[in-house]
Amino acid sequence: MNHKIFICDNSIEGIFSGVFEAWKEARTIGHSHCKLETRMPQFASENDGYQLLGVGENMTGGDYRNFELFSEYVEVEADEEKARKVTKAVCDRLGFLTYQGICKTIAAEDKEIIGKRKNATDYDKGDAVYRTIVCGFSMQNGEEVLTNLGNPYVARVFELARRVDNEIGHWREFLRFKELKNGILFAKIGPLNNILPMLMPHFTDRLPLEDFMIYDDRRELFAIHKSMRGMNGQKTGWVIVRGKKLAEDELSDYSDSEVYYEELFTAFCHSITIEERRNKRLQQQMLPLKFRNYMVEFE
Amino acid sequence: MKYIVQEEMSVMDKLNILSDAAKYDVSCTSSGVDRSGDGMGMGNAVKSGICHSFAGDGRCISLLKILFTNECIYNCKYCINRATNDVPRVSFTPDEICELTMQFYRRNYIEGLFLSSGILHSPNYTMELIYQAIWKLRKEHNFQGYIHVKAIPGTDESIIEKLGLIVDRMSVNLELPTAEGLKAIAPNKTRQTILKPMKQIQTGIAVNKNEIVLYKNAPRFVPAGQSTQMVIGATPESDYQIVSVAESLYQKFDLKRVFYSAFININHDKDLPATLDGPPLLREHRLYQADFLLRFYGFKANELLSEDRPNFNTMFDPKCDWALRHLEFFPVEINRADQKTLLRVPGIGTKSAQRIVWARRHGSLTFEDLKKVGVVLKRALYFITCNGKMMYHTKLEEDFIANNLLEVKERLPVGISRDGLTYKQISLFDDVNFGFQQQVTEILQTGSG
Predict the structure, then answer these.
(1) Do A177 and B22 touch (CB under 8 A)?
(2) CA-nearest residue of chain A to B108?
(3) pTM for this one?
């Protein structure tokens, strides 16, 4: 009721631009009259060919969010300059750890889990982030904002950030590379949240001398790292590519020793099991079935 | 004794034999040290450890766990590789170990290497070979991932010294909790030969910490610390003795972890127990729970058990058991109690206690907030108050709370049963009000549903 609702893109730039706009408005009408909502995936700009895939049957078209009576809806375009200003403000006032937590919240896209909570939808993460920033700025020591779990929006950000964190941990454990004929290591993952950019730092630190590529098959995103051999310890960035399709046929072109090492590892996993303690349910509890499609020892 | 010429065996056969022989060693974690790669090699280490896979018995696979060789001159009764067993004997070459480790690591199958060994000729001879293999891995292949090495009791000081500079964790297996047990079951190993290298590693780590304060880039000696392992159930020690030994190990040797391995009857030796019901998994689980209480919750061994109560309660975990016997400390007021007291409440763990203390600074907490924070209210509600009020009207009485906690049912790890017991607490009073308990359970169900 009587809110000014800002509709933003489902990305860090989008939501931070929304925060920028909302803050500007809030100077006249007050923070409690401003709200953020994230745009439905098909409203995301088509120019860069970015499509959110496989998110469920509801995504066929038509905006089914609940419109509020007497509220004004404003579309916000993602703007890099605005996002940069908000980022600087957040890092300065709330600390880098809080900023990381907020980024993780924005990466949360797991509709199943988000939808299980009553009245929670994919849209509310923008609002939760906005109100957390408001709460943090009003505190004396903004860096403590994520400990204030009494505030329901902070609790929501905390919860979403924790889910994303857990998923990053899982994929860090269960990701498997396969060596292709040209020496490139290729890995496929299927995360529920948009975690690919957060996985890369770990692997670039671990494998600086390797060419490798990680493919997110739910979003058709590629993360590519080039070997730093001969650069004397200089560690490089990596890039994310989208809009390209995966060449399936080139994928099965493994290097000669790839099958050999896969067999060795599978044999190792079997021989290390203590038969007297065999416990399939415990194994399933620790290693959910959904990851096993991507793991070589379960093929 | 079958002797197979090494050249004939493929790496696959060797891996099968030597990983099968290593599988009873449970101290295989990749935790304890944070290290970034230097950009010139391969690998880094993460302090929390990373479990890359889980085996069919539910245990995590995080390191390439192998023996260097399964030849052995000792004859410990519980061990599958003991000298008098007729098993094919085989060894890896250093090159093979390096190749396996590097190729598995770059495919993200493992966090690093776990190298144990049987004893070939003598402890020093074997450890020297192991040192050469690991040196090759670190210096020639530039491997910067995790390496855990088992030191053989009786090894020379100089070898431990140089090995400690290139591994992350080094451990010596205690094998059995008491000296008498050791003498009966593993006569070649004595308390002295086991504790001496443990002491040396401990001193080395302490000295190294001082060196690092003075010079930031000093080479690290065993940066992930030391651990050890005990076999549970092979000898008749009580739980109290085992937990006391663990406590003194943590205090006197600065160990990072003590591991407990349920005894599995491989050899069917006449001096070892028969274990007809399978390995003592519930006992092992209780020991791990007590171990965490010692390390993170500030408990002492004599608080959990004593001479007249030397073994754990099968119905309740050690923390609940302690709480039920010490109801004079409860109820605890959430908004006032200090963190140490909060840790003693069943249902509040280390993370929840920390979050409560932090969240308290912004305002007082209600039971709803506690649920968000991660407290297990179904267990904790009997022991806490929020702003003076308990969640539901409950009596602070041992029988009453015990019965209700039994209704909640401890979540044992999948696969462990309470040894088939269907125990129900008997009461001296005929008019025990079972109806009231049903009521409370119903309230709990509606409240949380």
Answers:
(1) no
(2) A176
(3) 0.85
